[in-house]
Amino acid sequence: MGKTRRAHRKSRTGCVECKRRRIKCGEEKPQCANCVRHQVPCIYPPLQSPTGVPQSPNAQPSPAGFNSRSQFTGIQSPPPWLLSNSILHDDVPNLSPTLFEMKDLVLLHQWTLSTSLSIIYAPGLDVMLQQVLTQIAFSHAYLMHGALSLAAVHLAYLDRSPRHDLVLDAAQHHNAAIRGFRAEINHITPANADAVFATALLNTFYVFATFGRQRDRHDGPAAGCTPRNHYDGGNGGGSAVADTAASRRARILSTEWITLIRGVGAVLRPAAGAVRTGPLRDLVNMGNWCAIDLDCLDSDEDARLRLLRRIWCPQAAASSTPASANASNPSSPAAAAGAAVETEDTVAAYDEALVFLRRSFAWMRMGLQQQQQQQQQQQQHNPASTTTSSSGHTTICSVPFIWLHLVPAGYLERFRQRQPAALVIFAHFGALMHDLDGFWWSEGWGREIVEAVDDSLGTYWTPWLEWPRRVVGLA
C-alpha cells in the first residue's frame, strides 16, 4: 500500500515574510498571524492574473460597486496594450540588477522605525541616525548594507525564539558593508567621508551586538556569524561549536573585537575634517571631555579607581590612599605586598589607561546626570528638552568606545598577555560598560567582562575585583 502524500505546507500566495521563512501563510489581511506573532512587517506581493481560465462569452462588465476580490478574479487576461512593446521607452536604459531583495525592505522598515532610534537614545542624535544617516545610505550601498545588518541583528534580538535566518542575513549584509568600506577607505573624499564614517560607526555597534549575548542566544547554524568568524555557508548548513564558559571567556578577553573597533579609528583620520563640518558632525563632538579636571574629582567611585595604581606601584605612599576607600581590602599594604615591580614602560601604560578610565567614569556620570535632567524637562513639557545633547556632553554610549580608542598599545599588549594588573583595569572597564546595560546592543557586556576576568585570576586578586563584581551583580 502506497504512502499517503503529505499536504503541501509552504506558502504559494502568502506574504513575503512567510515565503522567506518557508512556512504556510494564513493570508490574513492586512497582516497574517505569523507576522503579527513575530512582530515583523507583513507585505504581500502583487497579485498575478490567473491563466488558463476561459472567458464566458456572456460575461458582462461588473458594476461600479463590485468588491475588490471579484475585481481580481474577474480578470481573465491582460489587455493587449499592456503586452505591446509600444508601451516601452526605447530611449531609456534598462535598470541595473537589483542590489537588494524584497526581504531587505523589511529590514529597512525595521531600521527606519525602530533600530535607528534604539542605538543612542539621545535627543537629536537618534533622529540623525534615522533621517540623515539613512539619506546618506541611499547614495552609498555599503552604508545601506551596514544599516540593514544592524537592523537584522536587532530583529533577532527582539525575537524570543532563535532566528538563525536573521543572524545569517545580518552577516551577509555586514560582509557587503565591509567590502564597500574597504574599497573606499583608500580614496576618502568630502563626497564619501560621511558614508565611510557612518559605516565604521555602525560596524562598532555590530561588533558589540554579535560578540556579546546575541551569539549565545542564537546558537544554531548561524551562531558563528561574527566578524572574521563566519560559518561555512557553502553547504547551506553547519553546526556551531557549543559556546562553553571557557570559549565565552576567551572571546571576551580576546583583543580581536577591540582591534576591530580601534582599527576603524586609524583609517578614519583622513575623513575627520570633513565629518566635523558635515551633517554628522554632532556624532563626533567630544563635548567637554578635555575640560574634566581629574584633580577635582572626589567621588567614592574615583577613589576606588585611584586605588588601582597600588597594584603596579606598591611603593605608592599610604597618604595618597583616599580616606573613603580605607575600608576596602585592596587599600591595605598587605594586599599589594605580592605585586611585582613593573618596568617604567609598563607603569606608564597602566597609568595612562587608568587616567582615561577615570575620565571615562566622570564623563559617564555627567552624561547620566544630563540625561536625567532632560527626562525631567520632557516630563514638564519644557521645549528645551528637545535640544541635542552635543551642546554639553556627548551621548553616554560613546564613552566605552572612547576608552578603547585611547588606551595605549602598551596596555593592550599586556592585556593580551593576561597580565593581572591589565585584567583588573579591564574588569573596572566592565563596571563602566554595565552603565549601558539598558541598550540592546550592549546588554550583558559589563557582567561578562567582570565575570571573565574573575574566572581568569586567582583568589589573591579577589579583593581588587570586589567593587566591579558588586556593580554588575556578581556579589
What does this structure look like?
- With 475 residues, the protein is mainly α.
- Among the domains are: 12-44, CD2-Gal4 (Irregular); 102-214 and 247-283, no CATH class; 289-314 and 341-379 and 390-472, no CATH class.
- Helices cover 51% and strands 0% of the residues.
- The N and C termini lie far apart (66 Å).
- One of its GO terms (molecular function) is zinc ion binding.
- Pfam families: Fungal_trans_2, Zn_clus.
Helix and strand string, N-terminal first? HHHHHHHHHHHHHHHHHHHHH
Helix tally?
A: 21
Question: What's the gyration radius in Å?
Answer: 28 Å
Beta-strand fraction estimate: under 5%
- Report the sheet with the most strands, covering strand number, pairing sense and barrel closure: none
Q: Give the distance, in angstroms, between the N- and C-terminal Cα atoms.
A: 66 Å
- Decide which structural class fits the backbone: mainly alpha
Mean pLDDT level = 76
Tally the beta strands.
0
Q: Spans with pLDDT under 50 lasting ≥5 residues?
A: 49-75, 220-242, 317-329, 331-338, 384-394
Helix content bin: 40-55%
Oligomer class: single chain
Shape: globular
